[in-house]
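User: I'm new to structure prediction. If I give you an amino acid sequence, what do you actually give back? Let's try with this one:
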Amino acid sequence: MNQLFGVLIPVWVSTLAWFVGAAARIIGGDKTARIFAWSWLLGSLAMWLHILGSYAIAYHWSHTEALLATAQESERVTGIRAAWGVYVNFCFASAWTLFSARLAVGGTWNRDIDWLVCVFTAGIISMATIVFETGFVRVASSLGFAILGLLILQRMLSRRETLSR
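Assistant: Good question. You get back a string of structure tokens that encode the predicted 3D arrangement of the chain. For your 165 residues, that looks like this:
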């Protein structure tokens, strides 16, 4: 039960919020900009709950245990024993939180930072949910990325249509 509420539900909320925000970002507009900012802020805070829950429940507040478990999981999936994924997760959660907090309070970033954060978070989300997960999470995430791809394609085609007139 602790695993469900302390680790799994926060990461599910986080992932869903990332997809909702990414879709809103692709669709564009004033109303969707708020959805983008606030869903990403919610998602990034849920990610911190997931990290804290993992440390409390799975790793018993031991950083060494977290590094060992991450290295073992990395080796199982990729064949490379890499504990540095723990630090990548900290970097991911920090960048995502700082970026979305600034957006949520009405601040803006330049296009380069926006693009960089979106690509970085998409890479982490895809690795975490498609490469390292199985079953429903992998299928749902793959579907989510397919939908985002279709939204990007639709937006590109509508821009192209507008430019050709």
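You can read the tokens as a compact description of the fold. Here is one thing that stands out. The CA atoms of residues 8 and 149 lie 26 Å apart.
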